Structure formats: C-alpha cells, structure tokens
Amino acid sequence: MGKNKNVVRIFAVLMVIGLLAVACSTPVAKPDDKIAVAKDAINRAREVNANEFAPLDLRLAEEKFKEATDAMAKENYELARIKAEAAAMDANLAETKSRAAKQKKITQDMQDDVDTLRKEVKRNQ
C-alpha cells in the first residue's frame, strides 16, 4: 500500500509540473486594443487641458503608455497590457480632474460675477 502512495504522489507532482509547463507556454495575445484605449484616453485628457489642470496624472499616463509601447516592441505582451491599462486609468483620472477643475473655475467666475453685480446694485441704490 505504501508503494501505491508513492506512485500517486509522483503522478500528482508530474501532473502539476505538466500543467505549469502548459500554462507558462500559452502565448499571450498582443494587447493592441488596450494600447488603443490608452492612446485615446491620453488624447481625451489632453483635449480638456489636463496638462494644465492635472499635469502629474497626465505625465504618469504618458510614461506608462511609453512603457507599454516599449514592452510591445519587445513582444512582452503581458507587461504591455498591464502598462496600457494603467496608462488608461491615469489618463481617465487626469481627464476627470481636469473637467472638475474647469467646472470649478467656471462656477467661481460666475460667483464672482454675481458678487460684482450685487455690489453694483448696492452702490446704485
């Protein structure tokens, strides 16, 4: 019975090694779609002046995008996918921060205009 246990253990170890070999040899698809999404996100962030309102987030997105394209050139598709996804997230954050900052500025400008009008009305009474 002890001999059978050893055979089962050896078989189990060999199965695990075989599964790991198959898993490691599975080719990773080129993440062209992730690269395109990241590029579009960076372009949208630039369009809303993220370089002015969220420069750090935009710079991080651009750096990660470069790392993604470098990884693509080296055919390291898993790293390229990870970096492209991170670049897209940073770019989306930059876009959101930029839009929020622009809206806040518009709101403040409107409040300043209202305050000015109130002062004019008081002065003219």
Termini separation? 107 Å
The Rg value, from CA coordinates, equals 28 Å
Characterize the largest beta sheet: strand count, sense, and whether it forms a barrel: none
Q: Give the % helix.
A: over 70%
CATH level-3 fold name? Substrate Binding Domain Of Dnak, Chain:A, Domain 2
Shape: elongated
Level-1 CATH class name: Mainly Alpha
Order of helices and strands: HHHHH
Class inferred from helices and paired strands: mainly alpha
Question: How confident overall, as mean pLDDT?
Answer: 87
Q: Architecture in CATH?
A: Up-down Bundle
Low-confidence spans: pLDDT under 50, at least 5 residues?
none
Assess the beta-strand content as a share of residues.
under 5%
Number of strands: 0
Give the domain tally. Answer: 1
Question: How would you characterize this protein structure?
Answer:
- This protein is an all-alpha fold and 125 residues long.
- It has one domain (29-124): Substrate Binding Domain Of Dnak, Chain:A, Domain 2 (Up-down Bundle).
- It is built from 5 helices and no strands.
- The chain has helices at 2-25, 32-47, 50-53, 55-73, 77-124.
- Helix 2 (32-47) runs antiparallel to helix 4 (55-73), helix 2 (32-47) packs parallel to helix 5 and helix 4 (55-73) runs antiparallel to helix 5 (77-124).
- It is elongated.
- The termini are far apart.
